[in-house]
Amino acid sequence: MTQRYGIKIVGTGSYVPSRVLTNAELEKMVDTTDEWIRTRTGIEERHIAADNEPCSALAEQACLRALEAAGMTPEEVDLIIVATFTADAPLPNTACFVQKRIGATNAVCFSMEAACSGFVYAMTVAAGLLRSGGFRNALVVGSEKISSMVDWTDRNTCVLFGDGAGAVVLKRVDAAHDSLRAFKLGADGRYTDLLQCPAGGSAMPVTPEVLAGHLNTIKMEGREVFKLAVNAMVGASQDVLKQGGVSIDQVRWVIPHQANMRIISSVGKYLGVPDEKVYVNLQRYGNTSAASIPLALDELARSGQIKDGDHLVLTAFGGGLTWGAILLKW
Ligand code: UT7
Question: What CATH class is the domain 180-329?
Fold first, then answer.
């Protein structure tokens, strides 16, 4: 079937809460050092949402900024997809809370769970729906309040994560102007144990015992995740470049999920792309999961570092395990 429609990003927005948590403060909370965190992860500080700022509140700000950049009103939005693993509540979905907050009264709303790959998954799903002709535009959001799911006594994980949100407005355009040149998604459920929050769902509802054992917080086998992350992101990125007929030299920016500086450097090295073309901001935000790529995209777009026609590779990896890459032509 000939493709009739494509998609274009017509606005970006992001938001991080004002409270900054530094490595020096973490030194006072768990047995860690600023030096360990910087050298093993690259992270210097992260932002932490206030008690009255749930996932949808972070998303709200990012969405309003993206709509403003797109020159659109909330009422014009057809579809809202929120990628998150830190939903406001199990029911209803977080996109509906975002809809209420911004007043997007005409939108269809749902959330998606693909952990740190969530934004890449959500962009792909939104693009599919727009290309089908059923929607004219979409707000695609990655928003996370990971501080609410972190075990603040576990030094293996609590130093890594931060809160934030990023959003893009996608518009349906003619197929000839399609920005989404290629996508590749992957998942491997054999690795569900490597990165998980064991309790709080139907398998293990919260009980006093669960709370005492901190089972409703993030658990991660960091070393194993690390190894798989590099291979998956490099493989998916090479796949989309091949599909799109674009060489790595023609790519203006590789925007990897911001989990660890060493992972990002390895991905850049194996792709054969110089450091200047790999966008990094995790020193300021830590790992914000589904928010990390749209946050980076917004910083690049607003600072004028992306020009029309630039090729971008977005690539992510996270719990599930899930991974993916997208080749965009701006
Ligand atoms: O968003 C997608 C999902 N997440 C990721 O992609 C994260 C992937 N993994 C990583 O980024 C890294 O594996 C970590 C940063 C989590 C850990 O780095 P590592 O180099 O793999 O360290 P390790 O887990 O092998 O631990 C090395 C040592 C251990 O001590 P021993 O056993 O060698 O005595 C840890 O106990 O570092 C210790 N350690 C710490 N020390 C000081 C672990 N966390 C800390 C800490 N401060 N915060």
Answer: alpha beta
